[in-house]
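4.2 Preliminary Data

To establish feasibility before requesting continued support, the project team ran the inverse folding procedure on a target of 494 residues. The structure was first converted into the token representation described in Section 3, and no sequence information of any kind was made available to the design step. The complete token record follows.
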């Protein structure tokens, strides 16, 4: 990784359907359906909406044999409608369904946590993929590591890397290089460090697989966009990433413009910014540079803070180099002006440019300028960037999945109702998860969890602990509020 200038990481080309990623190809945008995959009509209609929004890759869950088999009908209908969208099957818990899906789709995504590496299941899938020209994504999730990995490493970035490398070595042993890898987490710091550690591990072993980027359970609205941009942007700023998905708890076609904005934002990053001593920088370990305990926003600046303003086409590298070249622990506020007339676009760009500086512990404050928005609007964006970077909590955080065909309730409407009741609370994290695939794991650092257990049924968590199982959904929100009150963490709205 070159921290002085922008250059794309070298990766192998991977072909699936009409799409090629890696090599010198542009970063590709993708999204995922939230319709029942067994329903051909609604799934095809949503894939086509996503494709029209500008995503050449669409993923569908296949949680069982029926859904796996129905991928054939979905793909045939799409092709007859004139869509050459690359179709990816998303597999959890059922390796046998991957073998079914591989007959019909262009790429199969598997979770290493669901496979037994000593039983030949992966090797059999690889041979099937090779025969049809199907690509494979090794998709590691922070919340669902295999037991033997978790027992040794815990749910750490290192554990995620070990899970991926175990499977990538099997692919290499089979002579199969049409492999993409991802390391997703709802915690942006975990996500960024896991990807960086993965790149180091692959480089040591001569592997150059393309990388898919995403922050899981980012939520919705401007907060969800900022959280995704912080994690994805921190990696794209250093040339990591060949395909991306912005996961939002909204209609999936809403994800595409945000992802396309990020791709365009990082299409060119000019300039070289010399760093006197690069050894002072650790991209895989969080180190606070100064003694400032809580980073600040623009209206909290006091004289002891030094302000460094970026004016170049590569603000991330420019600001990082300027801070590293200080050779002191003097507290620093990073400043950048944005002229975008859209607050959403400004927020995404600022989060992508500046989040890395907080994820890595380099900066102590943020100051965003704009001629189009009020000081209070910009302050909210600044606070959201600090919260998404895991350095300052200023409001309730919602770890909410984007939903898919596995989702057991209306998660968009439910998230809105939970926000309405709890958004006034401070320093709380609430997980709102559609099912148990990643739910308990991805919301492991949440204070409370609201997880789909069955149709119309919810299980409530306190941290990792199940508090109440299979509550009727119409009672679940009141019971969640009662739980927060019983724990003494409730305050009435002002």
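Position-by-position output of the design step:
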């Amino acid at each position: 990784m070159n921290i002085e200038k922008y250059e794309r990481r070298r990766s192998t080309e991977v072909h699936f359907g009409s799409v090629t990623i890696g090599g010198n190809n542009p970063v590709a945008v993708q999204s995922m359906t939230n319709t029942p995959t067994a329903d051909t009509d609604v799934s095809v209609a949503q894939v086509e909406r996503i494709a029209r929004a500008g995503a050449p890759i669409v993923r569908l869950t296949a949680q069982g044999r029926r859904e796996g088999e129905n991928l054939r009908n979905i793909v045939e209908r799409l092709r007859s409608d004139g869509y050459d969208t690359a179709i990816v099957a998303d597999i959890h818990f059922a390796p046998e369904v991957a073998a079914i899906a591989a007959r019909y789709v262009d790429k199969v995504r598997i979770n290493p946590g669901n496979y037994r590496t000593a039983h030949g299941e992966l090797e059999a899938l690889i041979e099937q993929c090779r025969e049809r020209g199907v690509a494979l994504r090794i998709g590691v999730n922070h919340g669902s590591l295999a037991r033997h990995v978790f027992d040794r490493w815990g749910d750490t970035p290192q554990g995620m890397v070990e899970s991926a490398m175990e499977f990538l070595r099997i692919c290499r042993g089979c002579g199969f290089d049409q492999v993409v890898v991802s390391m997703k987490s709802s915690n942006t710091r975990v996500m960024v460090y896991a990807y960086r550690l993965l790149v180091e591990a692959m480089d040591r072993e001569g592997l150059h697989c393309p990388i898919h980027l995403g922050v899981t359970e980012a939520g919705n609205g401007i907060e969800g966009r900022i959280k995704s941009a912080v994690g994805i942007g921190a990696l794209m700023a250093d040339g990591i990433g060949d395909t991306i998905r912005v996961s939002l708890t909204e209609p999936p076609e809403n994800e595409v413009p945000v992802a396309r904005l990020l791709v365009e934002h990082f299409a060119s990053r000019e300039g070289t910014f010399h760093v006197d001593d690069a050894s002072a920088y650790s991209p895989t370990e969080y180190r606070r540079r100064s003694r400032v305990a809580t980073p600040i926003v623009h209206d909290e600046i006091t004289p002891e803070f030094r302000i460094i303003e970026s004016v170049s086409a590569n603000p991330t590298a420019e600001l990082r180099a300027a801070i590293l070249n200080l050779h002191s622990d003097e507290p620093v506020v990073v400043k950048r002006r944005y002229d975008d007339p859209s607050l959403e676009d400004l927020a995404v760009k600022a989060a992508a440019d500046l989040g890395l500086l907080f994820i890595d512990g380099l900066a102590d404050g943020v100051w965003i300028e704009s001629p189009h928005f009020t000081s209070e609007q910009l302050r909210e964006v600044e606070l959201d960037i600090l919260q998404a970077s895991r350095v300052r909590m200023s409001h309730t955080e919602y770890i909410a999945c984007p939903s898919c065909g596995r989702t057991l309730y209306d998660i968009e409407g439910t998230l809105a109702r939970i926000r309405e009741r709890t958004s006034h609370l401070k320093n709380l994290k609430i997980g709102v998860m559609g099912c148990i695939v990643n739910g308990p794991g991805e919301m492991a650092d949440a204070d409370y969890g609201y997880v789909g257990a069955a149709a119309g049924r919810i299980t409530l968590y306190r941290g990792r602990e199940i508090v109440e199982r299979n509550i009727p959904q119409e009672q679940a929100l009141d019971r969640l509020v009662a739980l927060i009150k019983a724990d003494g963490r409730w305050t009435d709205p002002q």
